[in-house]
Protein 1
Amino acid sequence: MKTIKLTIAVLMLTLMSCGDGISKQPANAEGFATIEKELKDKFGDDAYYTDVSISYDASIGNMLSLTVTDAPESLKMGQWVQSQQGWKQTSEITLEVPEGTKAADFMFQLDETINLSKLGELVEKSSTQLTTEKNIENPTLYTAFVKFPKNGDVSKTEYSINLKPENGGTTFRFYYNINGELRKMDY
């Protein structure tokens, strides 16, 4: 009987800690690389995405929202969210693509070209710039996401980052091109 209780306790702790891998990661290159690894563990190395967004709330940590498929030709994708409660599929969507095109042309994969490590690096860069230029101490991540163009032109992909002062207030927005060059910022 003790063995069963111990096994159940270990299983419960394992299940409860699954969300912590993402929710507790820092908003930097290393933290976002860990999040990307967990996405690949969950959805596979060859998964296709139309969006990936990381939001932060001080009381619960990071939350993810994404649209993903492992079979683009099926035109079926799942919308998923992840928070402290773990992964939950919120809906299933069916894509429509122009005749003569492939669905994968309108999706991206997490690889060397588009990756969350670069997004985390740009969050760090934006935070430093905000501290230097606006004298805002400890800006915190509000949301960071990969914005993939609807026409499928990978070169037009953007990394978008929204930061706020630690105690709330104005949202500062940074937009970077796929190479990590600042395209514009809104203060």
Protein 2
Amino acid sequence: MLSNKMLDLILEEFDLEKNEVFGLKGYPNKHRVNKNGLEVYTNKWGYSPSLDSLLFERYEIVKLPFVPEPNETYYAPDISIADLYRQICNYDTKHDKHRIKHEICFRTKQEAIVKAKEWLKLIGGE
């Protein structure tokens, strides 16, 4: 078990959020870091003994797009409204699946706003 301080330092070093799922270059499985250390997903989440390998840069972290869990709140860009984002709950609808497929689901409203501003620049509307 990692202490809160150690966990925070590791997450900061790798620019990760607690339980953020990521890949390791050259490996097909998904990984995450939390109080248990480094976990790997095969058919379920389990302990991975290679946290030291990650810390000593033997692996390269590959950021994966955010995919909200069922019933999890996420944010999506929306250039049709002044706030430039919508807060949405993932009910696994065709619209949720579309946003996930096109990687336009975000953990924070700030990330959604950044994407909306990128879109506005593309169409010359900023």
Protein 3
Amino acid sequence: MKRVLLSIALILVAGLFVLYGQFPSSFGAKAGISITDQSYQLTPIDYELETEAIAGPTFSVFMEAFRATHFSLQADLSYFLKGSKTSTQSVTVDHSNNDQIIVNEGEMTRSTFKYISLAPMARYRLGKGSFQAYFLLGPRVDILLKYESDSEYPLEDQQRVIPGLTLGAGLEYSLNQLGIFTELQFQGDIMPVTGQDPLLVNNHLLSLTLGLRWLVSD
């Protein structure tokens, strides 16, 4: 499995180098805030822990190439903070009492995962005026930089590389060769953070950013 993930990461990185090696149509940067949560599922008893979302900073640099009337390719290199909060300390099953689930709660704890993200995406633009709506869709690979948790039971054996899918939409205002835009992205992961039973943890992220785009060629 690790070899498969590494191969996926290398393919995406190679695709980025190909895209970045082309004369760019535009490039720029964006920054903002992300709202992220996680699903904690205990597979033997089919139970999902209650979690709360956390907010964190995000920023990206990007480059666009192969720009046509509506379609183009865009590659994002981003930093994201993912994670969640929970007050659940332990979950047990009382098999002598109809498999009753007993949840022990304590103080709220916070777990965070810091990732560098590589995302080559297709970009579709609507209209040709000063204001243009656009949509983004493509694969993504998250590379873990650091994991932190103040829980008494921190996660073990986190996946270092996690493939996923990015879906985005934005609105851009163009002034000559400068574009100012706001963008909303949703990120889903193809595989869990832990990747093993009995606890499966999956990331979910929604980000809102503001950015600047410098148009090199139209």
